[in-house]
Amino acid sequence: MFMSTGLPVPSGVHSFVDLVRQSLNLDILVLANIWILATGAITSIRLAGNILHSFAEKTCLSTVHVKQDDPLYEEIVLWMNDHAFKRRNFRSVLAQTSKSSDDTAITRSLPEKLDADKLVSYKGVEDDSSVELKPFHGSRLFRFKRSWILFSHAANNHENISRYPQIEVRPQLKLQCISLSLSPIKDFLDEVRAYSRKVSVSNITVYRTRTNSREVIRWSPVASRPSRDIRTVILDKHKKKTILRDINEYLHPHTRQWYANHGIPYRRGYLFSGPPGTGKTSLASAIAGVFGLDIYVLSLLDPTVTESQFIRLFSEVPTRCVVLLEDIDAAGLNRGNIVPTKSRSAAAQSSPEPTAVAPSTTAVSLSGLLNAIDGISSHEGRILIMTTNAPQSLDRALIRPGRVDLHIQFELPSHEELRSLFLNMYSDISQNLADHAEEEKQRPAGLDDLAMRFAELLPERRFSLAEVQGFLLQYKRCPEEACENVSSWVKEMEVEERG
Ligand SMILES: Nc1ncnc2c1ncn2[C@@H]1O[C@H](COP(=O)(O)OP(=O)(O)OP(=O)(O)O)[C@@H](O)[C@H]1O
């Protein structure tokens, strides 16, 4: 009987129950009992599963946790998306605005030749690469070589993070396999690394500091872009060769062993000095490309980074990478109020006037920076590149050998360098030409003469390559026009300087 509880039941419920009973020929009480039993059974199976899983975890499962701020995290997610998740249909995915610089879709929907007078609105242009849908959270059991690996990626519990910021949050990415040894997962991780290297072979990733949701400052990838071709960096051939050889030798594993055998800390530092816009950052980026290294950019002027964080970040960079510390003079770094001593070489080339010392604008003191560079916790194996516009204002302690092993001075361009810039702008150096002679042969006829004329119309060692490049960008497709207009541009610049 339905009325067994003795509680009054609305007549509407009565008629609904009668309707179900008559039309389906089923007793709703029986249905309710079946439902209760099924729910109980499912809950028990789940519970048993959990108990079994935690028992297996303790006895026969090997587990590897990966923290979200480790570069491996992104690499594993990438591998899973491109392999294990590829053929499965997910209904809950992560939508991402694509950072890809691949313009194929846009190029397809535009006319082949650029019409200078026809303006294109990119709102209406189809860009099918702008949104990516990726499986993100969830579990997946997959076979790798001869082992079964369970990948689990839990969603971030933001509530817990904001409530208990001091508590170490459980790592969200977990790999497990039925084995008493970690070697199947180790093999898998090696494969993940190799795959990630293959995918980004011609790209360099730039890392900068970012404060995460737990208010902890960490390295974070901000861009992955094609590396700059070293041939496009204009610099005295001898200087370019010297630094490339030096880094090549330094990075070789034999050199590392040599340092270890001789008890010398395995570190190498470079100082790039020169006026603004002469190619210091461009060379650092091209070096990273040549040696397939990622760049970690630190700024002494970043107000969010304290001295201890600065030292920690320095010690957290990977073994082979470029750490770029830009404009170290701009931070007004000095030993408290002590006026920094001039370096011998810098003093030789600087003006006889004493250099005005800017007040310190950084949370990092000179001793903090020295500590980060070669203190006890400082990382070995990295390449440190510091750039400055005013080497004469740097403390000698900062640029002593061991901290700065090679000083590359950039100058305002000579006629020869201006000629090279012109040729760079108007020749197609996207082709992978093996030697210089081959490169010359491929140049459009007459370009060499134009380049010579252009360079001679400009005064030597007066304007930076960045300034001249800015002028040339107005005539991207018309080298002749650039030559015709360069003299009036020089006059304008001179008037501007005087004013
Ligand atoms: N030596 C050079 N070779 C090729 N391009 C250069 C060179 N110098 C400057 N440029 C061009 O000028 C622009 C600025 O160069 P870059 O940022 O490398 O200069 P910088 O010396 O680091 O300047 P700053 O001291 O202001 O940071 C870049 O777009 C680069 O292409």
Automatic annotation (TrEMBL):
One of its GO terms (molecular function) is ATP hydrolysis activity. The keyword ATP-binding applies. It catalyses: ATP + H2O = ADP + phosphate + H(+). Residues 266-414 form the AAA+ ATPase domain. It is found in: Mitochondrion inner membrane. Keywords: ATP-binding, Hydrolase, Membrane, Mitochondrion, Mitochondrion inner membrane, Nucleotide-binding, Transmembrane, Transmembrane helix. It is a single-pass membrane protein. The keyword Cytoplasm does not apply. One of its GO terms (cellular component) is mitochondrial inner membrane. Residues 36-233 form the BCS1 N-terminal domain. InterPro entries: AAA+_ATPase, AAA_lid_BCS1, ATPase_AAA_core, ATPase_AAA_CS, BCS1_N, ClpA/B, Mitochondrial_chaperone_BCS1, P-loop_NTPase. It holds the Pfam family AAA. Belongs to the AAA ATPase family. BCS1 subfamily. This is P-loop containing nucleoside triphosphate hydrolase protein. It comes from Penicillium bovifimosum.
